[in-house]
Specification:
The protein has 348 residues and is an alpha/beta fold. Among the domains are: 3-162, Spore Coat Polysaccharide Biosynthesis Protein SpsA, Chain A, CATH 3.90.550; 267-348, Tetratricopeptide repeat domain (Serine Threonine Protein Phosphatase 5, Tetratricopeptide repeat). Helix content is 46%, strand content 17%. The chain has a five-stranded mixed β-sheet, sandwiched between helices. It has a four-stranded mixed β-sheet with strand order 5-13-6-9. The longest helix is centred in the middle third of the chain and has 15 residues, at 223-237. It starts with a strand and ends with a helix.
């Protein structure tokens, strides 16, 4: 069995050593340099990486990634698309060997996209490992792997960690995303991404229109992503009906429930606030998907439940949730003060 690790790179000299070390159990390492002005190519070649160069003009990620994949010889079994700011966690190879034995063509794994200090932040299921044949990259940005035919997926206990360079510009993403939607207007994923990009850039009219268009697409069938479009429409319009719609789209997700509890808290409607917070806390399983947001799984649901319970005179419930909120965020002075206040009320 032969496994390749491949990527595209531009001005990634600082990451080469770490990238190579994490992938040292591969049979071949391949980097396609897309125009570096630093020593990325030279450093990579000096440690045994196969390096080629390309000029993609006009730039699009799928063309570059397909060219990088083409560098991998035909006799390889599996390919790991590992960006230069990502690392494979030790022990990964044995899982891929098992995937081949299982007849899997696209192994899934845990991907850590962000960090809270040394602790994982956003985590979701990664999908950038694939058989050497039968796959290609699609879309000028937020590119995805597509299978030529039938694929077989399976989950394995391997991980990839992302440690991004926050100083690196990603300004080219916006126009490329507009291009992606222009090329495939019925693609629900890129419609949702473009709407979010409009929102992040403060272009709220365009964002609202694109979120509405996303929800109208026949291809937009995934409940959690539809729910997120509804949640963004709430942020734009401040119409709480959109939160109700989000909950209906994805009743097994916390985010909209916590936002609804926050809405009722801000309105001083304590009983509905407590109900929404408790409904959120009753969602126990944290999904391994990119839409999961930290605020819904931290101290906030318990904090909202505690405040609402106290306002309703339910002091024991307030103390319980105040304690749980403090456990999740032990250095927050406000939560600490609130918990002491609730305990005093119980003892009174």
């Amino acid at each position: 069995m032969k496994i390749a690790v491949y990527t595209i790179a531009k001005d990634e000299e600082q990451f080469v050593a770490r990238w190579v070390e994490s992938a040292r159990d591969a049979d071949g390492l391949f980097i396609l340099d897309t125009g570096s002005s630093d020593n990325t190519a030279a450093v990579a070649k000096s440690v045994g990486v196969t390096v080629a160069s390309i000029d993609v003009s006009p730039w699009r990620f799928d063309v570059a990634r397909n060219a990088a994949l083409a560098m991998v010889p035909e006799d390889y079994d599996f390919c790991v698309a590992l960006d230069m700011d990502e690392v494979l966690v030790s022990g990964w190879r044995e899982h891929l060997e098992q995937a081949v034995a299982d007849g899997v063509t696209r192994p899934r794994y845990k991907y850590t996209w962000s960090w809270n200090g040394s602790k994982p932040g956003l985590q979701y299921g990664g999908d950038k490992i694939h058989s050497r044949h039968g796959y290609f990259w699609k879309h000028p940005v937020h590119e995805v792997l597509r299978a030529d035919g039938v694929e077989v997926q399976g989950w394995y206990d391997l991980e990839i960690h992302h440690h991004p360079d926050s100083a690196k510009s990603r300004g080219q993403y916006f126009p490329l995303l507009e291009l992606a939607v222009a090329e495939e207007p019925d693609d629900d994923r890129n419609s949702h991404y473009l709407a979010r990009e409009y929102f992040f850039h403060g272009m709220l009219d365009k964002a609202e229109a694109e979120f509405m268009r996303h929800l109208s697409l026949p291809s937009a069938v995934w409940g959690p992503e539809r729910a997120q479009s509804c949640r963004y429409l709430y942020k734009i319009t401040r119409d709480a009906d959109w939160l109700a719609a989000a909950i209906e789209e994805a009743p097994d997700r916390r985010e909209a429930l916590v936002e609804l509890a926050q809405y009722y808290h801000d309105e001083g409607k304590w009983w509905p606030c407590l109900q929404a917070a408790m409904a959120a806390l009753n969602v126990k399983d944290r999904p391994l998907e990119y839409l999961t947001e930290e605020f819904a799984w931290g101290s906030l649901p318990h904090d909202l439940a505690a405040v609402a319970a106290f306002r309703l005179g339910l002091v024991h419930e307030a103390a319980h949730h105040g304690m749980e909120a403090l456990k999740l965020n032990p250095y927050d002075d406000r939560l600490s003060g609130n918990y002491g206040f609730y305990r005093e009320a119980v003892q009174a």
